[in-house]
Design goal:
Elements: H1 2-28, H2 33-55, H3 61-73, H4 76-87, H5 93-97, H6 105-123, H7 129-144, H8 147-157, H9 163-180, H10 188-191, H11 193-207
Length: about 210
């Protein structure tokens, strides 16, 4: 089983390199240089973990997950967004409207790019969905189901650049519904991204 994991990770390294190139190309047209560098640093840190896993025999999947978690918790921009998302549900409607603004977009970008990288690992079978959900489920869905994140970043940028993210959302949501029901998905009942996707896709079909 360990050898199989290492082979999968080695393969995923190549795909993540291609993915990183695509993300950087997109970002170069929409961000300032310092913001691009920050995002590159995030992706690079995850790549280093993957590369180490493919080369070192004594690194376990547990260590890999721990390092991924450290990439999330150790990133100041990601934490700035996460700290706001965690308190969103406790605020008044007036406070919610001003919690996340245009000024937060570079940090939102980095938060979402982290999960785009996770989507590649999940797609290549490097991380099982149960483990992924246990470690990152709450962090993922409080962002995707947040109306401010949807309005300020995802919809304003457009769904196409976030194709990997939306694919991960669909797969992950189905997994959680099957496992524990839609009511246990953070933000699902208030501002489900699932409903946003249906509206956006229907609009795209109508306009063609």
């Amino acid at each position: 089983q360990t050898q199989m994991i290492k082979k999968r990770i080695a393969k995923s390294y190549v795909y993540i390199m291609l993915f990183m190139t695509l993300v950087i190309s997109i970002l170069l047209f929409g961000q300032l240089i310092d913001e691009v560098i920050g995002t590159i640093g995030l992706i690079a840190s995850v790549l280093i973990v993957v590369y180490q896993l493919s080369c070192e025999n004594d690194i376990t999947m547990g260590s890999f997950i721990l390092e991924l978690n450290n990439s999330f918790t150790g990133n100041e921009r990601i934490q700035a967004v996460y700290n706001k998302l965690k308190v969103y549900g406790d605020l008044s409607e007036e406070e919610k409207r001003h919690l996340i603004t245009e000024a937060d977009r570079p940090n939102l970008d980095e938060y979402l790019v982290f999960f785009e990288t996770i989507s590649v690992l999940q797609k290549r079978g490097v991380i099982e969905m149960d483990i992924l959900d246990e470690m990152f489920g709450y962090r993922f869905f409080i962002a995707m189901n947040n109306p401010l994140v949807q309005e300020i970043e995802i919809l304003k940028t457009g769904l196409e650049p976030y194709e990997a993210l939306t694919e991960l959302y669909v797969i992950w949501r189905k997994h959680k519904i099957k496992k524990s029901g839609a009511s246990n998905i953070p933000g699902e009942l208030e501002s489900s991204f699932h409903e946003v996707l249906k509206i956006e896709r229907a609009s795209t079909i109508t306009s063609v």
